[in-house]
Amino acid sequence: MEIAQSLQQIQSSYIREILSAACNKNVISLAGGLPDEQAFPIDLMRPTLTQLAEMPNVFQYGATAGYGPLLDFLQHHFALPDSHKVMMCTGSQQGLDLIARAYINPGDTVVMEAPSYLGAMQVFGLVSANIVTVAQNAHGPDLVQLEQCFEQQSPKMFYAVPDFHNPTGVCWSLETRQQVAALCIKYNVAFIEDAPYRELRFSGNPIPLVSDFCPEHSIVLRSFSKIASPGLRLGAVSGKIAFLDPLIKVKQGADLHSSVPMQALLLGLLQHDNFGLHIDKIRALYKTRYQVLFDALQQQLPVTCGMNSVEGGMFIWVTLPECDTFALAKTLLANGVAVVPSPVFYPEAHPAQAALRLNFTNATAEELQEAVRRLTDVLHNTLAV
Ligand code: PMP
């Protein structure tokens, strides 16, 4: 049977492939975007896990939008006005897929930063969107390019990760947030704010969502993968009711609803008295690991390489002099360290800045130090000086 045309152009996720190679126990993996298993709040889940055994109703089919008590909690937790609502999805990845399927016709223009989250490029590719990129700088997207793009290409939506971007770790400044929101309003472009790393801020001050400045023009995607656990597969989408209702229709066809027992478990967790402490613990753990990785890189990277400091999230972006980053990633893997080369974060055939994405949340401090030794040995030996 011939596969659909829309799928023929889609590459299988390089990251998922490299992740399986990185399972070899001689390899230290900085390739995935995996939280640490130590950071899963299993103890805080225990009371609800026990209660679930007495709640047969949650094992029944449920509402497509989500488990009612959880939706009520999140409406309040996210401080949503009555004109807005929230729905649950099977990971924020599904939220993204629902948005693409509900709103994108083949050829519709979607703007993204370059580089950008690979999973979003896959989703928009599957609905045959016309993906247009704008460059990203240290504060967020290049605003001149963004306005030109809005003016000349009349995009339907702008998808972005303003908090601790995947892959670069960049966090948009307040001014950039305000200006992007103003441009979305001026040109009537929907802003799709993907915020899975927002709670992982370990230094600096919290900044409002971009959507806070354009609530009528935006949809926010949140994930419970990083603050609870990815295996729960739970995310939430919020926005004005008119934006959300079509997503519910698409979800009915996709999976009827997300797992109700898992949603009940999440609610118990979010309501646990120690959930705030749990988030503080994850932030402290990741801050330490980030600092170990950053310091080791600073001491050992060749001078021709660069990197950014980050205030949260999971990634450091190491920039390199012009080179074949796929070949480099392969050599690194053979030398016991897995990383992700930059071209996978750009649409195909798009020129890519030579860089590597390094994750700091899933390896211990000792492993991070050893990984940097292996990485920088290879870089010193292979990069032109
Ligand atoms: N958006 C971004 C930017 C991501 O990096 C990821 C995955 N790490 C997702 C969405 C999907 O997350 P989830 O586990 O909630 O599906």
UniProtKB/TrEMBL annotation:
Q: Which cofactor does it need?
A: pyridoxal 5'-phosphate
Q: Which GO terms describe its molecular function?
A: pyridoxal phosphate binding; transaminase activity
Location of the Aminotransferase class I/classII large domain: 39-375
Q: Cite the source lineage.
A: Bacteria, Pseudomonadati, Pseudomonadota, Gammaproteobacteria, Vibrionales
Query: Entry's Pfam families?
Result: Aminotran_1_2 (PF00155)
Name of protein? GntR family transcriptional regulator
| UniProt keyword annotations, A-Z | Aminotransferase, Pyridoxal phosphate, Transferase
Q: Does the keyword Lipid biosynthesis apply?
A: no
Quick one: a GO biological-process term for this protein? Answer: alpha-amino acid metabolic process
Mind telling me which InterPro entries this protein's record contains? Aminotransferase_I/II_large, Class-I_PLP-dep_aminotransf, PyrdxlP-dep_Trfase, PyrdxlP-dep_Trfase_major, PyrdxlP-dep_Trfase_small
Keyword Transferase in the entry? The reply is yes
Matching entries from CDD domains are given as: AAT_like
